Amino acid sequence: MGREKFFNAGMLLALLAVPLMAWQMDDPFVITLATKVAILALAGVGLNIALGLGGLVSLGHAAFFGIGGYAMGILAAHAQNYEPLFTWPFLFEGSNQMPLIWLVAVLASAAAALVIGALSLRTSGVYFIMITLAFGQMLYYFAISWSAYGGEDGLSIWVRNEMPGLNTLDPIQFFGVTFVILCLALWFAARLAQSAFGLALSAARQSQERVETVGLTPFKLRLMAFVISGAITGLAGALFADLNRFVSPTMLSWHTSGEIMIFVILGGVGRLYGPLVGAAVYILLEHLLGGISEYWQIFLGLLLLGMVLFARGGLIGALLGREVAHD
Amino acid sequence: MSLILILEQVLNGLQFGVMLFLMAAGLTLVFGVMGLINLAHGALYMVGAFAAAAVAGWTGSFVLALIASLAAAAAAGALVEVTVIRRLYDRDHLDQVLATFALILIFSEGTRWLFGSFPLFLDVPDYLSGPVTLPGGIQYPLYRLAIIVIGLMVGAGLFWLIARTRIGVQIRAGEADREMIAALGVDISKLYTLVFALGAALAGLAGALVGAIQSVQVGMGEPVLILAFVVIVIGGIGSIKGALVGALLVGLTDTLGGVFLPRLFALLMEPAAAASLGASLASMLIYILMAAVLLVRPSGLFGGSA
After folding, report:
1. Spatial separation of the C-alpha atoms in residues A94 and A71, rounded to whole Å
2. Which candidate from A133, A145, A258 shows the least CB-CB separation from B283?
3. Which of B87, B108, B160, B186 has a CA-to-CA distance to B195 between 20 and 30 Å?
4. Pairs of CB atoms within 8 A across A/B
5. Which of A131, A144, A302 to mutate to test the interface with B (most CBs of B within 10 A)?
6. Where are the domains of chain B?
7. In a domain, A327, yes or no
8. What ipTM does the predicted assembly reach?
């Protein structure tokens, strides 16, 4: 355990140090890459609560990522075009304030996770995988045919949204925002895993019968975990859309679900810092291999395949041995 | 007039459903016999379509192109089974999802590398192009009718294979009890390779047949793969009969909904809003169908236990 804690602190420090150095050397591109790592890691932290702690293999988390993205896109588009979003019961003109956008993103993705989870959790195993995948695709096709908000072309926002007291147009300040949120989410996930709820959820993953015998309802535990998980991934979606100042149906596509899952797995399922390691390695690979070959995803595929077949604990598992963080 | 339109759309839905069945049959067989969830099934569909387009380009023969699609997809399926899939049978579903997702990346980017990003075109042969007049005076494209016939014939052949032949007995026994059939002296690993290659060949054939209507491009298998998942979730995983019923249900719902929902809404509201709302809702219709089926029967129409 000690070694893993040391390693985790090192990863977090590295994520903080790299953009700070890039800031000193005036290299905004590296800061943007680090921001992307922080945001994608946040999405992974969300999925990891369902996947690692709850054992729920959701292949539809792009739905929540995309809903968060569209929450930002819709609010900001109305604000920039001065078209009221609704006039009843009160006049609301959209918003370009990040805290409000985050709140809406979290609530909207949590609501979606509640509905999707309540339906999907009636099943388990391979049915659950396919149904979460199908609901994700449903939203994807809905976004494509929803012409009011850009349809297939997506929505562009001209200026990044505002955060009181900060200049979010400055890359290092926006990175700071995402880094703080990632740290809070990691802290929250760690507390959750140690809480009575987290322990019960983990127990439901290992032995459903025993949890039922002591009077808990696995369905409720899992639904709660799925909602929390979706809400965190939705927040990541809002930040990701703000980073790109663009949201499109691609954020909802099942490739995005697969990628978020890859972050979790590359690092190691159930490891608290697994998503951070996974997202960092993914972005590094994309950047390094993408420079060598247009077809870099072949190498990503081979790496992932090798990982699944031969190194089942993920990168952290390969580095630190097989113990799992939350035991 | 409107009756003819309805009949035309029913035929379109049938054609779509039959293609979905070819995809879903392989998926459900592989899951039923080996307990494997295979996301890379859509990649085999794509392999079939590209093989057909390439062979049709060299030889000009559509029949050869179809044979090539079967052979290439079966070969790719067998190769993947022996090298990768075989190691996944006793792993959990998460590992299977990831490994087959990795295969998609490899197949898609590999195909892009070989054939480029631009779509290829596979032409309908002269003897199958043009419309045909059906009883009742309906003009319908001959090629689409041929797809329905080919699909139904392949489906009938598959049912015959499973119900009446020695291989079919082994496949059904494999679904019921893997250890027992191995103990009875059936070479289980050979059977697995065979089932996987069979499923792959069906997907490849579907890819080639659809490739002549749409374009042949990288990633073409993925929308179909997800629809095939919806099909087998509705039908019940592992059931061929369920795959057929589910495929026809999804094919008809999607096609008829896409055509008639906007018209239905047009009766109630202004045309532009009706078109947009109708299209959005139509795109979600099959998922709503799936949710409804799951509410009533969580393991699908013909499924046993998950």
Report:
1. 10
2. A145
3. B108
4. 123
5. A131
6. 2-219
7. no
8. 0.86
